Structures are given as structure tokens and as C-alpha cells.
Amino acid sequence: MTTWSCMNLQDSASPIMEQLIFFHDHTMMIITMILAMVLYFMASTIINELVDRYMLEGQTMELMWTIVPAVILLFITTPSLRLLYLMDEIHNPIMTIKTIGHQWYWSYEYSDFVNVEFDSYMTPYEGDNKSMFRLLETDNHVTLPMHSFIRIIVTAADVLHSWTIPSLGIKADATPGRLNQSSFMINRPGLLYGQCSEICGANHSFMPIVIESVSTENFIEWIKKLSE
Amino acid sequence: MASRLLFSSLRQVQKLQKACIHGRSRIGNREVVGFGFNGQYSYQDRIDFPMPAIRFKESTPDIVALREKEKGDWRKLTLEEKKALYRASFCMTFTEMNAPTGEWKSIIGIACVLISIGIWVFILERLFVYKELPTSFSEESKKAQLKRMIDLRVNPIEGISSKFDYEKGEWK
């Protein structure tokens, strides 16, 4: 989850998000270098007192400032396309969960082995429980096993919503009448938070998502208990 | 008629290489001394092209007499005469052209005024417009939430939990 004054991406909980963070850092370095270069050019043009009244063109310069940015863009597109296709690889997920967005809560269905369905509403903030994360906690968590590929199918019952967990690098729009598929694998145990990311009415800011990542044994215990 | 004007002005350019685009009647009695920086009958003090097309002041009998004297030995000209000759042909000297204007002071001043207006707007908004922060922003709440974040190992790679030494139970 995001901590205070956090200007950067959350730490990754999945291998794809790790790669996304690396790509982000790589591209950020390139654009910082470009920024430094452009600032230097601007500063030296301002201070410059030389004038060429008959300057019309500079063919070599124009060639260089077309080719060099194209090469820089190649350095950006190569990892980008690699990551794009990596994100779409099929991994034989061991289970599929369905999530349906409603106004204003999420409902989840685990229908692979047992038929489990539940709703997940935001817990309203009370002043007494001081360690509660305001606007992020839900009554039911989406419990999932670690180190297993999971497929998630996202849809909505009424209006557009968007299901996202930043630390997994997932965002999938929940469109009524459409099934959007995404897949992920969680690297570490813990609680992963997300919030609805498509405006959906009055309580759009109050329908969070909590994934509880547990060991496979704990997951089996949990789902057995729920199905009873 | 337009083509006749065009051809006559083109002929002038070829013959004399002096300023020749329209405006001749606006300069009064001023002598045309060259092409200028764009071929127009204008005077401009420019450090990158210090040869304007026309003299600065109109020709008066005094100046015409001085110009005759200028054709002779320059050592016979007094300093005052040299200065008068310069000021007749030019408005400013190079030193005057390059002199700092102090404009930066007004720019910085006005920028500071506008920034302070922005800061005042922000202060007045904080005082009169915004509601109270929720109780989860109190120090006690934040401490409890921070402890829970550390217990949950939130952001353990480079974030907050990576700065906590779990074996010793204290910050690194």
C-alpha cells in the first residue's frame, strides 16, 4: 500500500510489477538525461550573445536531431515491447476468480472447486480503532494463495468500475456486459490494497479492494471454511 | 502600374544597393546612406548590424558644413565637432546600446508580488475554506497505523519496512 509522502511506485508483489518498476526506472533515467541536455541548451541560448543574421538551415544538425531521438526511442521501445508481450503470456493459472463491480462494492466468486461467493464492502472509519487504514479496509478480503498463477475475470453489474492492485501492476476495467481477463502471481504474503479506478457514482472513492496473500495450506483451510 | 513600381525599385537595387522599399516620404530630410539591415528606410540601433539605412537626424546647414570639414584632416576637428557628427548620424553609442536597463528588478519584483498573492490565497483557504482533517491524521493514529504497516511488512523491498530491523525490533 502507499505510505505517507510516497511519490513513487509501491514495492512489487509480483514478478511483472518488478519488471514494470525496472522499466520505469530505465525510462526515467533516459528522460532525466534528455531534460538535463535540454535545460543546458536553453540556458546557453539565453546567455549567448552571438548572432547570425543570415542563418537559414543547418542540414547536418537537422539530420542529427532526427536520428539521435529515433535511437533514444529505440532504447525505450525495446524493453517496453518486451514487457508488453511478457505481460500477455499464458501461464496455465491454477485457479480463476471472478470479480464483479457493483455500486458501490465488489463481489467475488471462486467457482473452480467449490462454489464460494461473497461481497466486499468498505469498513467505515471509526475513531476508536486507531490502526485502521481509512478508506482502504474491507469487511471481506480476497484471500489468494502465494506463488500460484491466478486468473481474474473482471466485469460489472451496473456502471463502469475498474479493479486494480498497484503492487501487482494490475488494472482491469469492469465493463457491464464484458469479461476482461488478467493474470498474476503473488510473490510474498501480506495484504495488498487497491481502490476502484473508474468513476462510478457517489461512493466511487469508497469501494476498495484488499487481497490477502497466504500460503496454499491456509488458502485451502479458508476456502473450505467458507464453503461450509 | 504596380509592375512599373516593382521594376523601377528593382532597377534601383541593382544600380545603387541602397534602401529602396516604400517609405521614402516619411523620413523627411534625412540622407539615405546604405541598404540597412532589411532594405527599408528605417533607423535602428542594432549591435549585430550597426549600419542603418538613414542618418538619425535630418540634415541641417550646420551638419552639412561639418560634413564638408570632415572630408579634410580629422585632426582639425574638435571633440565637440566629432561628437556632433556622430550624434547626427546615430542615436546611441555602443556603450549606451549595451548598457543594462535594470529591467530585471521590475521583473523579479512583479514576480514576487504575484507569488505572494498566491501564498496569501493558500493561507486564506487553509483558514476559512478547508474542513478539519479526519482523526486518522492525528499523531496517535498515525503512530498506530505505522506500527501496523511495519507488522504487515508493507513495501519491504525499498519502502518503509525495508528501513526497519526486524531482528532487533527497531529502525535501522
Automatic annotation (TrEMBL), chain A:
GO terms for cellular component: mitochondrial inner membrane. GO terms for molecular function: copper ion binding; cytochrome-c oxidase activity; oxidoreductase activity. Pfam families: COX2, COX2_TM. The chain crosses the membrane at residues 21-43, 63-85. Keywords: Copper, Electron transport, Magnesium, Membrane, Metal-binding, Mitochondrion, Mitochondrion inner membrane, Respiratory chain, Translocase, Transmembrane, Transmembrane helix, Transport. Its cofactor is Cu cation. Belongs to the cytochrome c oxidase subunit 2 family. Component of the cytochrome c oxidase (complex IV, CIV), a multisubunit enzyme composed of a catalytic core of 3 subunits and several supernumerary subunits. The complex exists as a monomer or a dimer and forms supercomplexes (SCs) in the inner mitochondrial membrane with ubiquinol-cytochrome c oxidoreductase (cytochrome b-c1 complex, complex III, CIII). This is Cytochrome c oxidase subunit 2.
UniProtKB/TrEMBL annotation, chain B:
The chain crosses the membrane at residues 106-124. The lineage of its organism: Eukaryota, Metazoa, Ecdysozoa, Arthropoda, Hexapoda. It comes from Zootermopsis nevadensis. GO terms for biological process: mitochondrial electron transport, cytochrome c to oxygen. The keyword Transmembrane helix applies. It is found in: Mitochondrion inner membrane. Pathway: Energy metabolism; oxidative phosphorylation. The keyword Transmembrane applies. Keywords: Membrane, Mitochondrion, Mitochondrion inner membrane, Oxidoreductase, Transit peptide, Transmembrane, Transmembrane helix. It is a single-pass membrane protein. Gene3D superfamilies: Cytochrome c oxidase subunit IV. This is Cytochrome c oxidase subunit 4.
